[in-house]
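Please fill in the sequence for the structure shown.

STRUCTURE ENCODING:
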């Protein structure tokens, strides 16, 4: 059933009133749609709902025409939930389609983009097929960087299924496929050292290479970590066969930001492959000058809308910085 409604809030009233009516309409064949709930506060219920497949019991008790009525329903109108505190990117780009993707590609290229990045998992489920992949990846003659993270349309998929999607991307014309650093062994910070998982990662990277694409291995740590930890992750990406290492950390203070700038130089001195080192948080200058001091690329957005991730700088601002620093 198609996700048609974005609902901000997952409390008792909304689930017992609005979502109940949507469920009733679906069951009667009067509607065909499900709800995506967005958790508006940090201590919400999305994780609890997820644990029970977003289904819940509703008990109604009252009086109709003088008769006492008791009714029990299993409500299944919620498709999934998002917490902007834990999965911010998924929240910012919730719904997408091939036409909108092409519009943004056109605008990006007109602003001087030298490659196009697509978070393909954010396309709606009905667009997740080889024909659409091939249509999008061949829409431009510029390099195409494609991801298939665990969010959005990939919710509920195994890492093995996601791995097959990445191989399909390569076969359909993607230039660069993003392999998560913890694929086959999900870990905080997206980095695993489990031997079995690492062996499977190497096999996956080899298959992607044989299908004609390169691999960027990514670890989204999303917090400040030491230079030694960053280098350890990057060297592991390199050893596993990645063509590019991508690490996203964080910086909340100027001291952490200065250390992140030093880490860029450390990576330049020790890696044999290109790297993309980014930082979130309050101090994120790396996103704006990283490619001028050693990173292999910038990541930005063509425009701001209700779906774009605010931590990504605007393409026109990036090109202005780049052009004026040369």
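FILLED IN BY: designer on duty
SEQUENCE:
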């Amino acid at each position: 059933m198609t996700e048609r409604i974005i609902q901000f809030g997952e409390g008792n009233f909304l689930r017992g009133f609005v979502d109940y009516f949507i469920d009733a309409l679906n069951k009667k064949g009067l509607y065909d749609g499900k709800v995506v709930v967005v958790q508006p506060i940090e201590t919400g219920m999305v994780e609890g709902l997820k644990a029970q497949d977003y289904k819940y019991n509703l008990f109604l008790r009252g009086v109709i025409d003088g008769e006492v009525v008791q009714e029990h329903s299993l409500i299944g109108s919620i498709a999934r939930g998002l917490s902007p505190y834990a999965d911010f990117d998924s929240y910012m780009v919730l719904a997408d389609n091939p036409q909108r993707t092409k519009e943004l590609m056109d605008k990006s290229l007109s602003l001087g983009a030298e490659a196009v990045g697509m978070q393909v998992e954010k396309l709606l489920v009905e667009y997740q097929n080889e024909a659409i992949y091939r249509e999008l990846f061949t829409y431009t003659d510029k390099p195409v960087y494609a991801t298939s993270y665990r969010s959005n349309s990939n919710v509920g998929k195994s890492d093995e299924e996601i791995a097959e999607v990445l191989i399909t991307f390569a076969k359909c014309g993607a230039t660069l496929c993003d392999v998560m650093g913890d694929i086959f062994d999900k870990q905080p910070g997206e980095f695993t050292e489990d031997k079995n998982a690492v062996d499977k990662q190497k096999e996956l990277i080899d298959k992607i290479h044989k299908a004609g694409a390169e691999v960027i291995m990514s670890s989204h740590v999303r917090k400040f970590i030491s230079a030694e930890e960053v280098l350890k992750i990057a060297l592991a990406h390199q050893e596993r066969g990645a063509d590019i290492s991508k690490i996203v950390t964080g910086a909340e203070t100027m001291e952490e930001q200065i250390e992140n700038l030093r880490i860029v130089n450390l990576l330049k001195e020790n890696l044999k492959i290109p790297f993309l080192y980014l930082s979130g948080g309050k101090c994120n200058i790396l996103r704006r000058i990283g490619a001028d001091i050693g990173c292999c690329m910038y990541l930005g957005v063509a425009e701001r809308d209700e779906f774009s991730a605010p931590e990504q700088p605007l393409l026109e601002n990036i090109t202005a910085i780049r052009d004026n620093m040369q």
